[in-house]
Structure formats: C-alpha cells, structure tokens
Amino acid sequence: MKKTRIQMSRGRSLTISEFFCGAVGLERSQLSLVRTFEELLLAPNFLEPHGQCWDILPHPNARLIVVPEPLLLSHPPPPLGTRRTRLARLSGEMAEGKLEVFLSRLTQLLKEGGAFNPHTDTPVVQFLPPDKLKEALPLELGPTPSSDEELLSLCQDVIKYSVKTSHHHFHNQLYSGTDPYGLAGAWLTEALNTNQHTFEVSPVFTLVEDAMLKHILRFVGYEDGDGIFSPGGSMSNMYGMVLARYRFMPKTKTKGISQLPPFAVFVSEESHYSIMKGAHWLGIGTDNVIKVSTDSAGRMIPDELSRSIDMIVAEGKIPFLVVATAGSTVLGAFDPLDQLADICERLNIWLHVDACWGGSLMLSRKYSHILNGLSRSDSVSWNPHKMLGAPLQCSAFLIKEKGLLHQCNSASATYLFQQDKFYDISYDTGDKSIQCGRKVDAFKLWLMWKARGDIGLERLVDNTMECARYLRDQIVNRPGFRMVVPEVQCTNVCFWYIPPALRGEEESDEWWNKVHTVAPKIKERLVRSGTLMIGYQPLAHKNLKNFFRAVSACHPPPTTADMDHTLTEIERHGKDLFT
C-alpha cells in the first residue's frame, strides 16, 4: 500500500506519521499507540502543540495510519483552533451559531411530524411493541459524540413513534394537547433554566407565580389564601395531607407520629390513588385510609362519611382529614362539597378538595355551580395541565390559611434563605415548598391566561363540556352503545359497546364476561390502526365490567365531528367480535 503523504504549503511533503509526530511531539515509535483522532486530541502534548496543527480528519473515530489513497493539500487547512474549541468538539458541544440552526430544524421536524396540530387523517400513534421499538431506535450510548445530522434523524424517529397527544382523536388520558401560548411559555422557561426558590435567581418568575396564585385563589373563593406550584397533582394532594396533619398537631413536625394514636384519612371509593401513596409516604399507613361508599354516579355519600368517622373514633384513631374529589378519574364524579364541609366544620376536620381534574370548571359561569362549596374547603389541588391544556407539568396547590405553608415546610437553609438580604425576603418562596430545586411552572399558565383572559379560557371549558354532552346524547341514541352512568358530570363519558353478536341475549354473568373482553380487543385494534386512542377500565367495587372512558380536554378544541368519529371507529373495529 502506498503511503499517504501530506503536501505542506511550502512544498515540503510529509507522511502522516511525520506530520503528527512533529505536531504532537511524540516519538515515532510512540505513534503506533495513537489509533484514533480522539486519542490524538487527548494526548497531553497536543494541548500545547509545537507549531501550527491542522485538522485533517473529519470524524473523531477516523483512523490515522491506514488510508488507501494519497491525501494532497494544495493550501493550508483551517487550524484546529484553541484548546477550548478542540475540547468542545470532542465533547459534542455546539459551535457558535449552530444552536439556532439546530433548533430551527428541530421545530420543523416537530411540525412535519404532527406534534403540534396533526391532521385528522394522520395516525394518533404508529405503535411498535417494546422489542420492535428498541430495534428501531439507537438507544445505546457510547464514548463519542453524535453529529447534529444523526441527532436530528434520531429526533425524527422519536417524533414518528411517539403518541400525538395534540391529535383530535386522542381521548386516552385526563390531558391532551397543549395550549400554543402555554407551549411558548414552556420553551421560554426551559431556555432560561432557572430555579423557583429565591427572588435573586428567579425575580420575574417569582412575581409571576405570586400573581398567578392570587388570581386562581379568587376563583376558588379564598379571600386571603396562599399557594404554591408543585410537580403534579399527586404532590399537591400530599401537600394537603401534611398541612392537615400539621394544623391538627404542629408537634408532628419535630416529634414525629410514633407516640401518637393512628391518624385516619377519609376518601371516596372513587378517589385518586395518590392519597394511598401519600399515606404511605407520610407514615399514616394505607390501612388508615378509609374509603367511603359512593352513590350510583360515583359521589361520596355524606351519611356514610359520618358513619365512617364515628367508627374510626370508636377504634381510638384520630380523624384529621377528609379528601373530597371534584372530578374523579374514571366517572368524573363531583362529591357534594357543601354537605361534606358541614361535617368537617362540625368535627374540626380538615377538608381538602382534589380538583386536579374537575377544577377547571371554576372558570365557567355556566358550570361552576358543580363546584359549589369549594370555598368552604381548607385546601385545593388543581392541575391546569389536564383539562385546560397547560404543558405538563402544571399543578397548583391552594390553601385558605396564609402562612401555614411556610410554618409547616420551612427548614431555613442559611445558604439560600439568608435573613439579611438586600431585598424583601418574603419573596423567597422556596421554604414553603418541600423541594429545594423547583421548576418554573407558573409562567406557562400565566402566559396562556394573558393571551386568552378569563373569557377565552371559559369558552374553551364550555366547548369541551358541551362536546362531552353531545357524545352522551349520541351514545344514548345509537344502537349497541350503553352509558355506564346516565349523568355526565365532567368531560368523562363512560360507556359500553355491545357487538351485534351479543345484542338481544340474556345479560347473564357469562354474557357480561364476554362484554368484559370487548373493550381490550377493540382498544388493541384502534391503537394498531392509529385511528383513535381511548381508555378503558373496570370498576370492581361497583361490579362493573370493562367499559370505555372517552375524555375530552380543551386542546385541541374538540368538535362534534370528533365525538362522532369516536363512536364510528369503535363500531368499525368491534362489530365482527364473537361472529
């Protein structure tokens, strides 16, 4: 094999070995130890080269010695640059000006891939099972950086195989697409990358969170309350639990609960599982979460709550908290808040309302009556990232008694919350939180609220509720469909689809066992075809077999055509079952 030579600018010709030996300062005998350009960059003497060094190899893994053809350079190649730029290249750091290009191309890929507002003809998801998806994506990590082209190609595949939650036919969860102004707010906060704990590192966002919480508190009905944004509704509910315990017995903060009788929490049997997790995390114990019976619509029965409290007191336990649900996960049920507040006020028990899902109705003059009694509660959790469409995650915890958050959670870390700062330290809100680092979540909601105002958000909520009621009406009047609960309280619409082969038969246990298999089978077909994503589940405590749960959220704004599509696709993919 003919040796590759490098033609220098003054006519001198060097072999690669001679060139790099001179540039790096290695003895010729040592060059065999340097196999790749990456290793060359890591050679100690290369960081302080003798003379001008030239970058003649395009890729970090390119071989130095084995090159099949001569390499002739008629003019000096560009210099490698400073030590900093060489190390930046090795670590995969972007060159100046490339960030804007990369982000612009990524935004275009998101647009083309249907991440923002996909056409209804495009699939909601291109589903691959885990083993096939692993084969389709280069998930493994290695020692060397990838090029921007490789990264953009990977991002394109990520978009391709991800669920398009902004699709009009995504009704699978208690969230959907994002408000575009909220998305812009999320991008801004990600770019600025600061922490929501002190005014000095988050001056604007501290004031934004304060303004946002005060506005929400007015809708809740707390005249002089307090609040904080937390990482999700589960955490917001846990705030309610720990504050209720602290308010009932402040010494639990310092002395713990080991010497006390068991505390008891009361929830409806439709409540979110985060209360059970909170009982575990807070040392209350899941056995001390008392599930209260609900009526046929999924609402807690006040008389059953009173009976349960009496029973727990007789057992020597401390009833300190009732968690009401305003918009349950499955049925969308709203507990009777006024009646529960009567009981809690009489017995001096904290009333926390889990309004993570249904709390958005407080923005609607038409539907806010469903939340009557909310202002009588002691605390509320609400997730704007659900129905309202704020980008995940965005959860607000609100409390009626101002100052209690700080009393309960403060740890007075002196490296963050110094008392002799040069500004008003009441704006250092981090000690109210159980976190240290806290993401800026209020700004995206604030920006979309600024863009739309109370009236614009109200219209979005009203439209979503009206579409859910339209869907209910279509189900009632369409052969083969049956409502689980006749009343639609939120945007959850729960129903069975009965294939033609099962219609008209005796509804025995065997018949219901067949119906139980319908939703899972249709769901699989829907996901594989990509035409619709919708949830299903049983309710064992009510002896209800698997049924569909169609959920609508504000983004993209649902239409009656979307509701019709839901029923048409279920029927199309299920009409041949049991034939």
From TrEMBL:
InterPro entries: PyrdxlP-dep_de-COase (IPR002129), PyrdxlP-dep_Trfase (IPR015424), PyrdxlP-dep_Trfase_major (IPR015421), Pyridoxal-P_BS (IPR021115). The keyword Lyase applies. PROSITE patterns: DDC_GAD_HDC_YDC. Coiled coil: none annotated. One of its GO terms (biological process) is carboxylic acid metabolic process. Its cofactor is pyridoxal 5'-phosphate. CDD domains: DOPA_deC_like. One of its GO terms (molecular function) is pyridoxal phosphate binding. Keywords: Decarboxylase, Lyase, Pyridoxal phosphate. One of its GO terms (cellular component) is cytoplasm. Pfam families: Pyridoxal_deC (PF00282). The modification N6-(pyridoxal phosphate)lysine is found at K386. Belongs to the group II decarboxylase family. Homodimer. This is (California timema) hypothetical protein. It comes from Timema californicum.
